[in-house]
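Internal tracking record. Fields below are filled automatically when a chain is submitted to the structure queue. Please do not edit lines marked as system-generated. If the sequence contains nonstandard residues, flag them in the REMARKS field before resubmitting.
Queue: standard
Priority: normal
Entity type: single polypeptide chain
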Amino acid sequence: MYKAASWKPELIAYFNRQKYSLIFLALLTSSCSLTPHNNNLAKKALELPQQIGDWSQPSNKLTTQNNPAVYLNQLIASEQLNDLIAEALTANPSLQQTLLTLQIRQLEQQRTSGNRLPLIDAGIAGTRDEESDAVYSGSLTISWQADLWQKLADKSTAAARDVSAQRALYQSARDTLAAEVMKAWLGLIAQKHVIRIQQQRIHALQQNELFITQRYRNGLGNSEDLSSARSSISRARANLVEYQESLRQQKRSLQALSGRNKYETLNVTTHYPSVVLPLADLPEQTLKRRPDLQAAYLNIEAESLRSAAAYKDLLPSISFQAALLDSAASPGEALLSSPLWSLLGQLTAPLYQAGQLEATAEISDLSIATAYQGYRDTLLTAVTEVEDALGLEKALTQRQMHIEQALASSQNSLKQYQRSYRSGLASILELLIIEQNTYDLETERQNLIYLHLSNRINLGLALGLGVSE
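SYSTEM-GENERATED OUTPUT FOLLOWS
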């Protein structure tokens, strides 16, 4: 009979080491499959702007009239407007909230990056019982988690992407605020023109009333004509009060944009400034300048990094801890006389957590898809804004030309009707109708001028023109 061989302790330890090595190797090879399913969406997002066709540029006649502007606030040359924009960028409360959010993101990045560094804790305690002197014990502990799978690095980089995205959103908020101030400033000028036209309308109606009253006293008119004239004057005066209050409201709105706490007199010029027509580059170049689109893309990258870190949470982790311990009769001697040291290395791996880590990883994977769809939505909005502004540039130019032609014809007709009424060949109702039509066309012309200039600001904002420092 053969005698059973006995296993030596050295051989058993060897097989245990081999077993743990095989387990660790299996976990290492399995990490290749623990990657997000949507990790290619960031690359796919970069390809979307390349699929957009060229913009429908305005005619050469329009584009050669002005020099191209590099910044949004260069579209209008006005020292008063530049002062208002600078004041708004400094004092607007909504913009300041966005800036504070950016500062919070920066501190969050600092906190996340700190997880990659060793942690040092120190402590001291004192005890004293009834039969002995006081004893003081001190401790110094250094702990550090090895970033074996670059999980902590992914989280830190994701936090950096969050900061960059918030910085882009802050820039977008600055640009939008500047555009709102510019359009509000133009709106004040437009409203002053509307008030001026309404005052001219009232003056013309008062002249008609005087003429009708004179004819009535001479027995050439009737009371119905006088009533119609006075009714038109009252209606025009009511509209004038509305326009004047609208001007005051627009001033208050502009002051709110500027961050002013109290109402102050704001004197604005009555002449429309020249607004440069922004030139549209190729779609890919134009969209790269838009900070909201930059922020949307950075969100995809941040979610991709967070998703990668979530999948890496399924892998084992290694941490180290070193500690110094000492006891002494005084606090000053603790940890300074003859401390005892200990060193601990620990390898941990998640085995069963009721599917929590897997669910977290899948949620983060879906967050990438959500950020990608958000990027697509922002891209479609950007393209629509550019195309709409370019289309309005053409349409408003044509509308303004037709309204000016109609206004010129109406002004000629008004002169003829005034002569016909004085000659008794036209009624007062016909004269009031042509007068109302003439002043309505003049008001519409001023409104089109404002819309045209305001649309150029919208176009500059849509093309990604930012505000100069």
